[in-house]
Design goal:
With 72 residues, the protein is α+β, with helices and mostly antiparallel strands. The chain has helices at 15-26, 54-63, and strands spanning 3-10, 31-37, 42-47, 67-70. A four-stranded antiparallel sheet has the order 2-3-1-4. The structure holds dioxo(di-mu-sulfide)dimolybdenum. This is P-type Cu(+) transporter.
């Protein structure tokens, strides 16, 4: 079964930021879909929990240059 998590993202100020974060999340193995919302500063990520976990999602956002924390 797939899981869906919401991440709070800090540091995005324009549409290019959104694209960077969205691409970074979609490139992670096990991520099925990632959609980033600039207005709410969140990402909604659907993923295979056997392949990827919340820490991997946060790490991908941080490698892209932003802060990302998975909502509990
Ligand atoms: Mo836009 Mo974001 O000019 O790091 S790409 S602010």
């Amino acid at each position: 079964a797939l899981s869906e998590s919401t991440l709070d993202i800090e540091g995005m100020t324009c549409a290019s930021c959104v694209n960077r974060v969205q691409k970074a999340l979609n490139r992670v193995d096990g991520v099925v879909d990632a959609s980033v919302n600039l207005a709410t500063e969140t990402a909604s990520v659907t993923y295979d929990p056997a392949a990827v976990g919340p820490a991997d999602l946060s790490a991908a956002v941080e490698r892209a240059g932003y802060a990302g924390r998975v909502r509990q």
